[in-house]
Amino acid sequence: MCEENLFYIKDTEANQRLDIFLALKFKEKNVSRSQIKNLIEKNNLLVNGKKIKAGYVVKKDDEIKIKFEAERNLDVKPEKIDLDIVYEDDEIIIINKPQNMVVHPGAGNFSGTLVNGLIYHFKNNLSDINGMLRPGIVHRIDKNTSGILVVAKNNYAHNFLAEQFAEHKITREYIAIVKGNFYSDGIINKPIGRDLHDRKKMAINLNGRRAVTHYYLIKNFRDYSLIKLKLETGRTHQIRVHMASINHSVLGDEIYGEKDKKFGLIGQVLHAKKLGFIHPKTKKYVEFNHAPPKYFLDLIKKLNARV
Q1: Mean confidence (pLDDT) of the chain
Q2: Residue among 210, 237, 231, 225 nearest 273 (CA)
Q3: pTM of the entire structure?
């Protein structure tokens, strides 16, 4: 089932950005620019029957067709899961997500997710912009990536944060152990899109979206390196795809790298260490840091001890 809407642009509505026009039309739905981009990517938003960009400037008599997909009636149960809450106020929650935890329910994962724990601890005190499957979820990190992320308690905070993500104004810093050694810092500027041969994977794709990753050497070990990474953009699996593209795949990443059984890892050695943004209420810049988990620190000791 889908909810379809059709609009024809009037004289008084012309010459404004499409995303601004739709945000006003669907004010009660709290539709954000990031949601509009998502509708465009799914071909659920067409102008004169064609796919366009969110920044398109509408013209008189344009036909705007927008389709909202109804969510399946899924029962996401609250679960008493211990959450590492780094910070909390009336607008946001900062969570340090452990490795091997999925952020929100999806195919094959309807239990044990971060959302199951959030519903138990915060009940209805979470934004509902992304529906019943993703209450409060503004952004994600991969199942086997640990680290901090921000959760929104209300729709205003959610939209305020989503705009910063969409405009690449969020500070995001990771640390990782990757294969091989470095002798300088660098930038990877390669577009990322769906893998043409495996739709479950991402890949360097000339027709994909702009993706930029900055990397900085912290320390070289024998055969491996500890590096810091800063995201200029935030594409799905960006760090993992980018590092693999320069032959420095993240250690433990069996999807984009190679199987490595030396250290008994359960996933990629990648940790979201720092997150900074303008706070939705104070309008001041805030920044949160969290050290990597014990297994990560233990691995650094092992690599230091190798000769």
Answers
A1: 90
A2: 231
A3: 0.79
